[in-house]
Amino acid sequence: MFFTSRAHGNVLFFGGYPTEEWLDVLLKNHTKIFVDTTTEEEKEMYHLLDYRSKVQNLEYHHFPILDNNIPNDIGRFKEFVFLLSEKLMRLEEGEKMYIHCKGGHGRSGMLVACVLCYFLNIYPEKALHLTTVAHSERENLRSKWKNVRCPQTFRQRKFVIDVFRPIVITPTLYDEKIGGDRQKLPEFLEESSIRPINDKSEDKVLSEVLIHLRRAHMKKSRSASSFDHSNHSLPLLSTMGGEVILCP
Fold first, then answer.
1. What residue spans define the domains of the chain?
2. CATH code for the part of the protein at 4-163
3. By C-alpha distance, which of 20, 17, 14, 74 is closest to 40?
4. pLDDT at 215 over 50
5. Does residue 114 have an active-site annotation?
6. E strands along 50-177, which residues?
């Protein structure tokens, strides 16, 4: 599909707002999930195709973000990323997801990078690199966009890094919360709301936590900036000095 960027395998694509021609190509190529990040005001201002009625038997998801901007509600945005990742996992062979904004350079790239972080369990810097490469390889990309990073604005790239920066959970924090009492585990998980990265830890207690942990955000976490990411093949989970680094 000449107007799209292939973000992951043959399932995740992103690009600009679909025209009638592009929509036909997307449908013929078994695109089952459409993800729209444009606002209703944009659709009216630029007379964009309202294609929702044409995909009513498929899936259409709308998460409006202002042009050149970032989401206002980070919590809701994270939930949306989790949802899209679950949808990706359930696609049948040959089926595709298409994420778009208006031009296909900023908001769609930002969302794709976040989905890649969660779906592939990779660091945001790696996801941003993959997104930029995919963007540059789009067949119908005009020359002025060839060497532009994706997402295009610094604020959007920083948003991806901030949302998916590593956090640290220490045994001390875990012990403080449950004190060895397994019955307190559900409450601990509910409060911390952290998703599993790897459930194969050699530590049995930690393994149990990782199996049950779900979705990431932890308000009280200390910095993981001193951790050397480059020397580890599992970037989102490392047992180092008894610490576990998870990606929010």
1. 4-163, 167-246
2. 3.90.190.10
3. 17
4. no
5. no
6. 59-62, 96-100, 167-169
